Amino acid sequence: MLVDGVPYRTIWLADDGWAVEIIDQTRLPHAFVTRRLETLQAAANAIGDMQVRGAPLIGACAAYGMALAMHADPSADNLARSYDRLLATRPTAVNLRWALDEMAGLLRELSPNARATAAYRRAAEICDEDVATCEAIGGHGLALIEAAARGKSAGEPVNLLTHCNAGWLATVDWGTALAPIYKAHERGLALHVWVDETRPRNQGAALTAWELGRHGVPHTVIVDNAGGHLMQHGRVDLCIVGTDRTTARGDVCNKIGTYLKALAAHDNGVPFYVALPHSTIDWTIHDGVAEIPIEQRDPAEVLEIAGLTPAGEVARVALTPAGSAAANYAFDVTPARLVSGLITERGVCAASADGLAGLYPEHAPEHAPEQADG
Amino acid sequence: MLVDGVPYRTIWLADDGWAVEIIDQTRLPHAFVTRRLETLQAAANAIGDMQVRGAPLIGACAAYGMALAMHADPSADNLARSYDRLLATRPTAVNLRWALDEMAGLLRELSPNARATAAYRRAAEICDEDVATCEAIGGHGLALIEAAARGKSAGEPVNLLTHCNAGWLATVDWGTALAPIYKAHERGLALHVWVDETRPRNQGAALTAWELGRHGVPHTVIVDNAGGHLMQHGRVDLCIVGTDRTTARGDVCNKIGTYLKALAAHDNGVPFYVALPHSTIDWTIHDGVAEIPIEQRDPAEVLEIAGLTPAGEVARVALTPAGSAAANYAFDVTPARLVSGLITERGVCAASADGLAGLYPEHAPEHAPEQADG
Description:
- Chain A has helices spanning about 40-50, 55-70, 75-85, 95-110, 110-150, 180-185, 205-215, 225-230, 260-270, 290, 300-305, 355-360, 370; strands at about 1-5, 5, 10-15, 20-25, 35, 160, 190-195, 220, 240, 245, 250-255, 270-275, 280, 305-310, 315-320, 325, 330-335, 340-345, 345-350.
- By secondary structure, chain A is an alpha/beta fold.
- In chain A, the strands form 5 sheets. In chain A, strands 8-7-6-9-12-18-19 form a 7-stranded mixed beta sheet, sandwiched between helices. In chain A, strands 13-10-11-17 form a 4-stranded mixed beta sheet, covered by helices on one side. A 3-stranded antiparallel beta sheet of chain A has the order 3-4-5, with helices on one face.
- Helix content of chain A is about 40%, strand content about 20%.
- Chain A has 2 domains: about 1-130, Four Helix Bundle (Hemerythrin (Met), subunit A) (Up-down Bundle), CATH 1.20.120; about 140-365, Rossmann fold.
- In chain A, α2 (about 55-70) runs antiparallel to α5 and α4 (about 95-110) runs antiparallel to α5 (about 110-150).
- Chain A contains 13 helices and 19 strands.
- Chain A is globular.
């Protein structure tokens, strides 16, 4: 997507053909800084320090981290060490393990002197595959925005609401929830996006607002409390959010607060869609509320917040009285009954076991391994 | 209530018997500072600068402002000027106008040399009446907490959730939503309160957490996004919130985000109660969503936040990228269908026209003025 008119991805090969460059997302929204990664260690730090975040982007950065490692030392020993080092950065990230297994499985079969070239090629493919997946999500979701636009007078914008950041910054390009919005913007549809700030980490206020603004998409930042009021008054035509984990029956585990917006959408007849690549679907679980453990993060994220001082420095300030404790649940689960549909790279389906089985027949119960083997 | 063991109200007469003292709430939660008000102007500034806030406390401070004015100059001219000056501080505050009308109506009938004494006496009565009202709300709400406690094992706390600050800091003492909690704490019931931080002005994180902490009530601050997840997992037994305006059929207009918590409570079978003095009831309106205009405040409250720096200074920091706009709706309306009951100074009733008419028969339709006159 564009940053003030210049097209960017979140990760790319440097002009010299071996180093890797990223956008340092820890500096957003107050500064746009790119970083050059030359070593495995630099790639691991970029993931661990959350300079890159978002499941697809973490996977892409890990793949390039393996390429940087092979560039320096293609030995089997270094291959194993680099795999372990990268995996330890964000141990619970599904795409991280997938990308590392993909790279290691390929590279182990090759002679050391073939590994670097193959690693760069596969890392580039992983990036391109992610871009294609996200662009396909965008294309399928576009139809939903076009449908909403047909109910509007000429020039009156479609009002969308999104929570957290499921934009291009979380992927290699396009994003998931924001991909349909970028597609609609590309088509010239009049749009306006309500951006939930998304406490405690404020990914909406910091990242979603930044990427929409730099690409030129009209938007307004609101506190997480505001969406219900807007929906009561017809100010939201369509909600689109992302998901970190989707169950086989269509429950979605996404950033804390998503469930509250889904309840408000349901109460006011506002369509509530969830955009996802198939990699977020966990076919082994069904009841998200009962089965998905919710990560608790550092209470300091609730007790303090970082922002830009009038002097132009980023500072952390305390929000609560000394002695008050905080709890910090990172995600919540939105039951499928509150989800109007799932927007995947294969199309839009109902948030149900049948809906998902229709798009992913290879995962449908009748194709479960024990029967496919029979 | 207690501040580290010392009983306080939010406003009181100084030991010298004529000046007035307040807690400067703009300094909370990072500093506990009391201020001495000696003039009408100081009282007006205390209201205008939100050193005192909350409808009942604003009314009490205005009443004492009139007393300070009469102490300095009891002339009819100063009486009229002081009324106007105080009314201009927060023009939309219902209790402010009520308290000023009460004071001016009384004082105009008296000779100038009798005005100061009468003003101090009536201001003190207004404070005591508010305390009695809030304590009665606390007594009636206590029964709901006791009922929840009967479903708990010994020592297991009743988990309450509240939004914004409807505590003693918003009144003269006890508060509205927190009054039942203080009553239950006084009885020795095991309690734990989830405190919504309440963006954008963070009255929960700043004021509710401070007053619960100083009084010794166990509590945990959460972001506004978290309540739905907690209710899904049985971690909330009872919600109690306040209201700024209540319609004749029981819709409640309270701080933005209240509606989302009411939806989550309804979806999870968690009782959702609203505590209010009768002064918040507007008998002239019924459909809160359609009829109550929602104030929009300065977008800077969303774009920036104030907190305590590590150096111990209060600083404002920007949260969003330059160029991103924000919208700042101050309140939302929770329809009566989502409210389990209203806790008033006269008892607990259903959130309905019939429920309110049962407690306030003098306002019931059959007692409407045109029929009472017939």
